[in-house]
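Appendix B, example 12.
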Amino acid sequence: MVIKLTYLYCWVNSPGMAIFNLERALQVRNYRRSREDDLALIPYFQMPENIIGPTGKQESLDKRKFIKLMDRYYEMRGWDEKTGCPTSVKLRELGLADVAGKLGKFSMKKT
C-alpha cells in the first residue's frame, strides 16, 4: 500500500503532470478543446471490434461506462467535469498561475 501511495504522490506532483495540464490548457486556448470534443470520439468505439476480445466476443464501448470513466479521469486530473478545462486551482497547484490567469476567458463552453 505504501508503494502505491508513494507512486501516486510522485505522479500527481511530477513535472509530467504540469506539462500535461499545460498542454490541455493550450488546446483549450488555441483550439477551444472541450469535453464535447472528447465525447465526439464515442461513436468510433461503439462499433464492435473485428477481433475477439477477452470475453470471447467482439467487444465495443459501453457509452455510459465511458462517460463515467471520463468524469473520474477529469476529476483525477483536476479538470472541470463540464468543460474539460484544467481548473485554475489545479494550474496554480502545479505552479502555472500565469496560465490560469490567461485561460479564464477560454475555459467556458463552446458557443
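Residues 2-46+60-106 form one domain. The CA atoms of residues 47 and 60 lie 6 Å apart.
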